[in-house]
Structure formats: C-alpha cells, structure tokens
Amino acid sequence: MKKTVILILLVVTTQGYSQFAKSMFSKDPIINLENWQKQRVYFGFYLGFNSFDFKFDYKNVMNQDIQVKKTTGFNVGIVGDLRLQEYINLRFEPGLYYTKRDLYYPNFTSQNDVLREVNSTYIHFPLLLKFSALRTGNIRPYLVGGLSTTLNLSSNSKSDDDNSQQKFRVKPWTNAYEVGFGVDIFSEYFIFSPSIRGMFGIGDELIRDNDPNSPWTGNIDSMKSRAILINFTFH
Fold first, then answer.
1. With respect to CATH, is domain 2-234 assigned 2.40.160.20?
2. Cβ contact 43:82 at 8 Å
3. How far is CA 144 from CA 17, 42, 101, in A?
4. pLDDT at 23 over 50
5. pLDDT for 107-143, tens place per residue?
6. Is-contact 131 85, C-beta < 8 A?
C-alpha cells in the first residue's frame, strides 16, 4: 500500500512541477481554470505523508529518559472547500492517517521493557482557514491554519492491561492546532496543491499505568502529539 501511494505521488508531483515551471517561466501563460475558485463550494481529495512525534513534559526534569524514534506514515482523505470571500476559504479535510512511533526507555535492561511500539491509525478532522495570495499566472500561494480533532483507532484505551503487560495506552480523542502553507498550481484539467503543515497537540493524551509509580508513565506530566504533514491535494 505504501509503495503504491509513493508511486502515485511521484507521478503527480512530476506533472505538477511541469505545470509549475511552465507557469513561472512562460512570458504569456495560458490561464487555466480561471473561474474555478470563484465557485461557492468545491471538493477534492489528497494523498500524503506524515511524521509524528511525542512531546513529553516531566514531573522530575532530571529524569528525561524517553527517546522517540519517528517513522514516515501516510495520509489519505477528502477536501470540502467553502469560499467565504475572494481571499479566504473555509476547509474541512477529514482523512485517515497511519503512523508509528517507537518509545525507548534506556533505564531498563530487558528488551521487553525498553521498547514500546506505538502504532496509530487516526481518523483526522481538521477545520481550517485558507488565506490565499493574488494569483500570478497559474500559481497561487496560500497560508492555512486552524483546529483539528482526532480519533485514534489504536489507542488501547479500553484495555485493563498497561505497560507491565507491555500495553501502551493513550486517550482515543485528542485536539490540536495546525499551521502551514502551500501553493495552488492550475493545470488544464485540475488544481494540484502541495502543502506542508505542522500539527501541535493541545491536551495530554497519555493514560497512566495502574501503578502511580510506574517506571513507564509515573514521571510523565503530559504527553502531546506533534507532527509534520505533507499533502498533495487535487481539485
């Protein structure tokens, strides 16, 4: 699945870059889809990548011992865009995000205690404002920001087992704010929009172990997700 997504993105990115180059360096570019974004509502879809991390705050700052190894996950979803005025749009971008993080506790000697694999399958619900610049030829950059809420289908929140049984638990619902930028590239038949966003959790999502002095969770004051999201959107 991941190889297929990567292959699709390589193809569409190459085509998008070709359109970008023509639009930037042609003296008199043909204006594509001139009235497309004047629609009140329009829809699209996106594919992309993510890199999720955890930000830990500790009760005892002298024992900051958890190391996070990040991996590259993938995103897929749909886009609904509501035009509020010429330069501002309201966007809803629900999607499915898959990612994996490995947590290392170096104070342990047993491999079963050192490593916690945190596999996450998210249903992501971001509500964003898009602030577009003036269109130049077939190029229109924009800024985007807003709030999101996320359902983690792999949270283990209903499990009675905890880290003593090698079960890492997090809350099923989390909230975050997101900021980023991108560019709309107008081709002859569709709009290709690569973008990059940062996502920053605004609430503690850790479920503590049953033992309040647990060596895995006892020193953690809060744990919040943060991520870099790269999406390739098509309208």
1. yes
2. no
3. 21, 17, 26
4. no
5. 887 878 889 999 999 999 999 999 999 888 889 999 9
6. no
